[in-house]
């Protein structure tokens, strides 16, 4: 099995109730990488026998640090309409909620379509760029092949109470990214990739600080056929923050296919300690 599929594997206990386990391959600074928790909760929906259509939105609230070990995951549809379905999911450890989520799935139909967002211009072929060095970076980064054009994670360890690096006037990042080892793209892997950007405050201040994502929403603009057509290709990804204030900052990001189709956009709110 691919490391991601191992990390999000679910043993069904009853309808909509599953047992999972954290994966050392996706370890972060504290607990598992948030993207893999997001993918795990979405996978509970994808596995559910009553699922209708494809995911169009996913919101995950990270209520507490996830400890290494067993996780109980539950997913239930709370309303099913003709073409949309609304879901509630939660992850618990020791009878306490560590993460909970909502999702909407839908049956898409052919309509007039257009996009106003624009992909990055003049992005070089990913294989002409060096793969990001994962030395001194969280373990989960080894599960992705990242090739940065702008906004890589600062090299110095940094931390609270240490001098700032040379602060930038922006927090923008642009990179090519795919699973490592390569894996055909689907909704669960895309949901994890949507959290694979480094915290925007690291990029803006050029130092590492204690942070934690509080809430993350992902909007899926692609259907199953579009994702299947991507195969194992690199995805073009961008991220930036809009505001840093009083211990919290946001992140807005986009994930584009190699042929410049918008696959997903994502927004999150992150806690930081200075």
TrEMBL record:
It comes from the Bacteria. Residues 28-104 form the Acyl-CoA thioesterase-like N-terminal HotDog domain. Pfam families: 4HBT_3, 4HBT_3C. Residues 129-271 form the Acyl-CoA thioesterase-like C-terminal domain. Transmembrane segments: none annotated. This is Acyl-CoA thioesterase. It comes from Pseudohongiella acticola. The lineage of its organism: Bacteria, Pseudomonadati, Pseudomonadota, Gammaproteobacteria, Pseudomonadales.
């Amino acid at each position: 099995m691919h490391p991601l599929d191992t990390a999000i594997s679910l043993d069904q206990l009853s309808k909509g109730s599953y047992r999972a386990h954290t994966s050392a391959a996706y370890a972060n600074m504290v607990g598992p990488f948030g993207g893999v928790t997001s993918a795990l909760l979405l996978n509970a929906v994808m596995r559910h026998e009553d699922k209708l259509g494809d995911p169009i939105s996913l919101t995950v609230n990270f209520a507490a640090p996830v400890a290494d070990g067993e996780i109980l995951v539950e997913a239930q549809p709370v309303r099913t309409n003709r073409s949309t379905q609304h879901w509630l999911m939660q992850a618990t450890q020791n009878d306490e909620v560590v993460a909970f989520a909502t999702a909407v799935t839908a049956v898409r139909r052919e309509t007039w379509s257009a996009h106003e967002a624009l992909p990055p211009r003049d992005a070089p072929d990913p294989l002409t760029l060096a793969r990001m060095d994962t030395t001194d970076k969280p373990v989960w980064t080894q599960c992705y092949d990242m090739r940065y054009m702008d906004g890589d994670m600062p090299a110095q360890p940094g931390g609270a109470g240490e001098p700032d690096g040379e602060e930038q006037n922006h927090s923008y990042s642009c990179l090519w990214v795919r699973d490592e080892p390569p894996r055909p793209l689907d909704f669960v892997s895309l949901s994890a990739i949507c959290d694979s950007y480094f915290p925007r405050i690291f990029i803006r201040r050029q130092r590492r600080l204690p942070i934690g994502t509080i809430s993350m929403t992902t909007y899926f603009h692609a259907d199953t056929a579009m994702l299947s057509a991507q195969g194992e290709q690199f995805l073009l990804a961008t991220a930036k923050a809009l505001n840093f204030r009083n211990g919290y900052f946001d992140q807005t990001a986009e994930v584009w296919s190699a042929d410049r189709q918008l696959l997903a956009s994502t927004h999150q709110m992150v806690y930081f300690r200075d």
